[in-house]
Amino acid sequence: MEITPGPQPGSSKLSASSPTAPTVDDDSIVKGKETFEDFLPKDWETLSISERIRSVTELYNADIPEGNVKHAALFGSIASVLFRNSVPGSKTGKPLESPHDFGIMLQEWKKCVDNGKEEVIKIVTTGIGYEDDNNGGIFGGMAVAMYRLASQLAAGELSASSLPTTMVFLEEVRRSTGNQKDDSGEEEAETAEVDGKGKAKENVAQSSRDTQDEEKLIQLPFGNVKQEELPDDIEKYLAPLEIGPVDKVPLQVENGKVVEPEVIVTYVPPCPLDESERHPDGHTIWMTKPATKAKYYSNQDWPKPLPKIPCKIVVRPTDDGTGMGVFATRDIKRFEPVLVERPYIVYPRRDVVGAFSKKALQELSEKQLGQLMVKKSEPFFRYMVDQRMTSEERREFMSLANSHTHDGSGPVFGIVRTNGFGIEFRERLPGADRDFGMKMGGYGAVTKIGSRFNHSCIPDVGHGFDASTFTMRFIALRDIKKGSQIFTSYASFNATKAERQKALAPYGFECTCRACVNATPQSDKLRKVSVALTQRWRSQAINVWPKDPNLTEKVLIPILETKRRMEEEGLDTKDAGYFTFPEILFRVYEKVGNIAKLKEAKDELMRAAKGLIQEEEWTTGAKIKFERGKLTGASNN
Ligand SMILES: C[S@@+](CC[C@H](N)C(=O)[O-])C[C@H]1O[C@@H](n2cnc3c(N)ncnc32)[C@H](O)[C@@H]1O
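Above: query sequence and S-adenosylmethionine SMILES. Below: predicted holo structure tokens.
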């Protein structure tokens, strides 16, 4: 039994914009290919730009797994060669040296595309490693940026001449690679926001609509919405919805063929609609594509049973007016699993319930479109709660916090917006992440216990989604004392205080955590540069300092000072680059021959490596692979 919405205005656009990925065996694409150029078609040099773009598009749609260095290398190679002859003023004509260069390049391209203008690029950092950062979020997002850019170039919407800053930037990177400077820890570096990382809890504050080839983000309203912002007659823009079991909703037929519904609601694992049978591990109501459902269920043992962990938390009211919170019932160590649960619902975080009608697009402002989307979403989520949850689940779900009571969100969508986590399927084989033309991390999840974690900019737990068990996983990012409240973060770790406040505004509170109370321009900057800085030092520790006969431990002064400041700021996490320090220290002490310190650093390195593997395996359900002694990828298969 499924539900399907009735015909929606513009819904055909939606499907047109969701490319159907051909099934391509990953191994056949990456096998035996070691260098960037190996991924290119043999006749690449003779291809025209539009042919090259077509080739990129095919590779993009082939769904090479995220989390694979070669994936990044693939796009890096293509990107570099694709544009090298088409950028006026570029003399380099060289392929990029690493997927990292490519990553920065794409971020810059994306900025050019987003802002429609050139930016002065100040990034002087080099050598950001990709082994530790090569998760699907980053490269998935970049690949999407790349794909968009290629499409825009192909459609003549963007000219290659708007890209020279990228090349200027790359020149700068190369220059600074060859001209290593001492690090003061104070240099300007920017880390562009990476989309879909899935680490921060995300308010469903944005969604998107399709207008022909272009995708535009719509800001959903929050806070008190003034009456004048709303169209008086918003109802006229709402298409009639037919929601119900598939056998009750009339089939759509086009050219004599039955058109598959665009979106269905199903259970994971399967269970009857009535309340007669429920899975002991819990089940999730999943709003998805029919083909995605079929693909997952074609896997015989899917979903796998939940891993068992001892209970170490309790949900209870806080004593500071923040409603409910999650507390530790015993001491919890860094990297320990804290919670695993099947979400109540998993849903696409974009407007899958029918794109906006032409009339709406022409007549309504962005604000009004946001308001319209809020209105359209409520009946869908209401259906899931009223028709698919047991009475007990419904009662529990409806008791979750709602910070969207004055912005036009209905009672159910308000709860979804307040409690939804952005999730990534992150699978080796093509997964659900790009359903409905979404970017990585397009689905959201509302959970029973996890949604009770309050926010801190110095979070105690991180979270991830494991598609093989269909569970949300939470893990300790630091030691947690018995009895203390456990916080997660709803904002990006690398956002400044002002940016975090903006991201948290829809939740209706001002954060008073240690990082916010003590924030300074220096702490804001540290958040921005921590990843770039630590990776650059790592790169120097690998490539530059071993060759320096005069190296002394003095090189560690800014490094140890930054490490201390990161601990103070609560940036002692993997995402912030903190676990790069043990390796840097190890390499320097090894080089200068400080045996006592070397042993300390080695122990720290081993602890960190073990913990990071545990974290990755727990939050993604993946088995970590090693290549050439390095952590290089994760696979769910
Ligand atoms: C996902 S819920 C967290 C659980 C919630 N406290 C409850 O009672 O279910 C998000 C809401 O909790 C509250 N909240 C979370 N973190 C907070 C914080 N650091 N300070 C104040 N309120 C917070 C806000 O009302 C926010 O909209």
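Residues 322-325, 400-401, 403, 418-419, 451-452, 454-455, 507-509, 511 surround S-adenosylmethionine (CB under 6 Å).
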